[in-house]
Amino acid sequence: MSEILKICFIFLMFYEAKGQVVKCDHKYQNYWTTGYKNINASYYRCDLSTKQANYNEKLTRIDGQHGTGHSDADVKWIISYKNHKLRSFSSIFCQKFPNLEVIQISDAELESIDEDSLSNCKNLNHLYLVGNKIQEIPENLLTQNSKFTIFLISNNQLTSLPENLFLNQKELEDLDLDDNQINFLPSNIFRPLVKLEVLYLDNNKLQSINPEWFVNLQNLKLLSLRGNQISEIPSKCFGALSNLEKLWLFENRIKNLKFDSFDGLQNLQTLGLYSNEISDLPVGVFNQLNNLQALNLSNNKLTTIHSDSFDVHSQLTAVDLEDNKINAIDPKVIDNTAVSALKMTNNSCCQLDTENKSKIKANLKKCFDNYQARQLKIESCSIQTKAQGTIIGGSEVKRGMFPWIAALIAPRNKYFCGGTLISKRKVVTAAHCMVFLARDITVLLGVHRLKKKNEVGRFPYAVQSIHIHPDWNPHTDTYDADIAIMVLETEVTYSKYIQPICLMYANSTLATKMEGVAVGYGKDGDPKKLHSIIPKSINLPIHQNEDCFLKNYELARYSSKRTFCGGAGNGTGVCIGDSGSGLVVTDGSAYYLRGVVSASLNNMTYGCDVDTYSIFTNILHFTDWINELPVEPIF
């Protein structure tokens, strides 16, 4: 036998033809790439025209004619071609060709695999089952052979994998499971794969990532989870993947990143996060990625990039921020990088697509300067102040101290709830406050003394429309989604007394702050008054729901996963009339909306029990809804 036949593959077709005998006597060369692997192989191919052949649903014949002087034992590679309706896969392959190294059955409408179908193939190392209709893999399919290096079973109908499928596959390097319907994977499914370098899980139905999947995958270089339904990246999720070079998470539903989501990925070079729903990047989220070269965050909901986001990324050369909502970026953001390609088209500002670092910095600076100028004139949400006192039994707020507060006025000039200005036409309040029609509500901005109608800087605004969150249900005890947006008929004119507050996002470091400031016109301790005439403020501790319920178990009845508790429990707190007002937290001179006053327990004296805690709508769960809410044209 010639030496070339010992290393070449014989390409066979599986069919039932009408009396035809096909000889395998045409030599071909083939070259392709799968994952990180390049394959260059010569083989003998059995040609069979699909126009002449008539295929049945079951394999009934294998043509074993390989040319003069060659036996079945010399066959190393068998392939079933497209349109060959091979419904099942049995041990007939390995019985006839015991020295097989490669089996490729692609697009053959294969539906099932016998558990012992590979038991006689002791040398098999490549298994390709792409583009079939396989719904289930037998748990012991691979147990008789520990030489597999490539296993591709993409584009099938799998929903899960057996827990022990890869039990002895210590040599497997390339695993492709994409384009299935996988919605669950056992925690230890990949643990035996200590040499795995490539793992594709694209286009499945995974809703979360389990860090246990990656415990022993220290040699993994490429991980792709694109096109699933993943909504968040857990803390230190990829910590075991110390040699990972490429991570693809695009086309998911990721909203939240934690500051340590990518810890441990010190060798990562490419990170793809495009086409998600990311609205904010936590400070330091990429700090562990010292070798990052390319970052794609396009088609998300980002509004800003922190100036120190890439301080440790000296090798970063390409950043894609297209199709976001970014207003401006401080040009210092790329000072410590090697960025030569920055894409920022289709943003609120900086329509930038440049491949030269000096031009990038110049364009960023121009855009940033223009943005700052506009902010100073009309959009600043950074007003420094010092809040003190209490709403019940506290001191008054100085005028202009909190220029975002709104007073909602009903017919006959009656104050009934508070609100918070967040943009030129949007005011946030509580859903339970919306008991009047839009045309019957007036929003007072720049107001200090409610009864002083000629107050300088005070302006009334008509309400064009009211948008109550679709999850709000006034017929239940639970105050879940107690939030509404009023859209004003005209744009607000900003002044020193009228400014919007900043919105914060779930991943912001401010979310961990455990104290906020509540401001409102609610009852101030005088049982004879329905509400205060002048706004008052209070510093309130923010509590986890569990601590809240320990203080008073009745609060559990009115709370939900989208609320939090606030209060000191010492006779001070928010009260009747404060509903819809904001609880804010500070970051330097800037204030951010953290919650909306929702509910308090009753008290016979004051009307609210300030010896316990109050319930606030957690704004972190509703920022996307607020931002996506359309604003009607001004008539």
Structural descriptors:
635 residues; mainly beta; Leucine-rich repeat, LRR (right-handed beta-alpha superhelix); 4 domains; 13-stranded mixed beta sheet; 5 helices; 23% strand; disordered N terminus; repeat; zymogen; Peptidase_S1A
- Main sheet overview: 13 strands, mixed
The name CATH uses for the topology of the largest domain is: Thrombin, subunit H
User: Can you count the beta strands?
Assistant: 33
- CATH-derived architecture of the largest domain: Beta Barrel
**Terminal residue distance:** 89 Å
Kindly report the spatial arrangement of strands forming the biggest sheet: 4-6-8-9-10-11-12-14-16-17-18-19-20
Mean pLDDT: 76
Provide a count of the helices: 5
What class would the helix/strand composition place it in?
mainly beta
Question: What would CATH call the class of the largest domain?
Answer: Mainly Beta
Helix content range: under 10%
The CATH superfamily label of the largest domain reads: Trypsin-like serine proteases
- Uncertain segments of ≥5 residues (pLDDT<50)? 1-70, 369-380, 382-394, 603-607
Domain module tally:
4
Give the CA-based shape.
Answer: elongated
Radius of gyration: 33 Å
β-strand percent reads 15-25%
GO biological process, one term: proteolysis
GO molecular function, one term: serine-type endopeptidase activity
Keywords: Disulfide bond, Hydrolase, Leucine-rich repeat, Protease, Repeat, Secreted, Serine protease, Signal, Zymogen
Family: Belongs to the peptidase S1 family. CLIP subfamily.
